[in-house]
Amino acid sequence: MNLWVVLISLIVGAGAGVAVTLLVISSVRQARSAAGMLVGELPRGVVELVSLIEIPLVIVDGAGEIVAMSPSTDNLGLIRNNRIANPELKKIVERVRLTSRPSAKDLEISRGPLGGVKLDLSVRADRLGVNFVLLVLADKTAVRRLEEVRRDFVANISHELKTPIGAITLLAEALQSAADDEDTVRHFADRLADEAERLATLTREIIELSRLQAEDGVEGFRIVDLNDVVAQAVDHNQVTATSRHLDMVVSGNAKAPVMGDSTRLVMAVSNLITNAITYSVPPARIGIAVAKAGQFFEVTVTDSGIGMTSEEAERVFERFYRTDQARSRATGGTGLGLSIVKHIAANHGGDVRVWSRPGKGSTFTLRFPIAKNESLEEKVA
Q: Which one has a higher pLDDT value, 49 or 366?
């Protein structure tokens, strides 16, 4: 058995998941003594063959450089500058290189430089000849994420939907008992309409949050200019801001390209602006800015509203958390808007932070990695 047999077995059994991984490692170990095994460099055609393999697979040389990699590996976001970027994966490769022993480990690691999306990986590694290490990765993230979505969705429904449903039931009973009183019927009908709208909004946001938790956060992304994102988000909130005598002042970077889903990014910025409108005391000004900060572009939304304590700021991105219950209910807030922002940021390899002081207002900052593909950047003007 030689290296070609090992790689062909990978192609044939790529869909078999962990079973294939174990077979690969076993085949590699048996092939060590074969005459055709790697010694100083990869045999001709190996790189092309690896490019046909569907499962994430990497071959690393003695200097830590990646000499061959399957296409699906790049989707995991673990490779930067032709090297493995994750410290835990580096340690596994180095340990296999030093001990010549195969290694198998389950890891939970972050995809991007800011943390963000967590990946559940089953890692298998073994020596390939003298100079190389084979690393095979089984991504179990989707299975874990779907289980979390199912559990959280059930918990959210049982926790929050019972309140508006109960209110609608009571209002319906009140309408029945006051059928002969036109003014009372009109009053309860208005209340019923408000609760129905609140229920519809809450249901939409629970479904949206569940979708965000289930999304991978990479597929379908394209180049997006954050200036355009901000412009759309401001437009969505302009009528509400004007009706409340609030001015929105926007400043932007000349060009702010990031990789992402434009609809999701607009939703994140719009939610921050909506939050600023909700907690501002008119007349007031809301500032929205796009700026470059190192390897990231930042979108900041600043208000001079009621602000938060440090304890409230630590919890503000939790689901259903409201710093001011009465104000949130009066404006139809669900307590999910900022949690949605957090998930969108994480799915884009970014994060969201907040600075706030009681009576001084708040500043929310979204950060996203700068798009690196210059050919794509040229399309953003």
A: 366
